[in-house]
Amino acid sequence: MWTNRQAFRNGIRDGIPIALGYFAVAFTLGIVAKSAGFTAVSAAIVSATNLASAGQYAGFTLVRDNAAYIEMAIMILVTNARYMLMSSALSQKFDPSTPFFHRLLVGYGVTDEIFGISIGVPGKLNPLYPYGALLVAVPGWTLGTFFGVVMGNILPGRVVSALSVGLYGMFIAIIIPPSRKSKVILGLTSISMVLSALFTYMPLISGIPSGFRVILLTVAISAAASILFPIKDDPYHADDHATDAIPDETHQKDTIRSTDHEA
Length: 263
What we know:
Elements: H1 4-35, H2 40-50, H3 53-64, H4 69-79, H5 82-91, H6 100-108, H7 112-119, H8 128-154, H9 157-181, H10 183-201, H11 210-228, H12 235-245, H13 249-262
């Protein structure tokens, strides 16, 4: 079990690579924010208060396209819904006596990467561990967005357009590893790409705002996948439950001895 100081220090150590990656990705996100009319300061504030790469990209894109508020709200809800699941899972890592304000502050910083390193901590999670990671990761994300907007104002238009492709590279990097491990994910990803292209050019559906098209596809494909390809129970967890159901042999012997003694 780590002390508070060890937990905080280990969090900083594990957060440094995340901060470096955040800076590179947020730089391209800043370029997208610039195209939506955000200043460097306003975009940095959005990054510091959201910490949501896909959600922020969707938000900046909808702002640029002058989307309706309801469209933006639904899009962000769908895009960031995974964080609710991550927070629920991470809450089980805390000691039951962990104060609410610690849970609240850690919840602010739940991202895919912070969740990944935090859930992998052996035993109970000390809140100071994610605090340490966030101490370096949040500035990396915020400064990357800030300098992305600044450089977007300085660099030539062709260079800015080329750099903006980097964000698509981030999404591809997210998709490829699980697609290589699962044929189901690979198939669903391919289907989503084909349907997205068809929805863009089909006569009737193409008239729907792009944000709503993404929402409809996301909900429809996710719902179909959950029905057709449900995730089976983890066999390791099943073994644990089976083991829990078997009475402990030592306990049985102690009980028998105790009964004989009383007799």
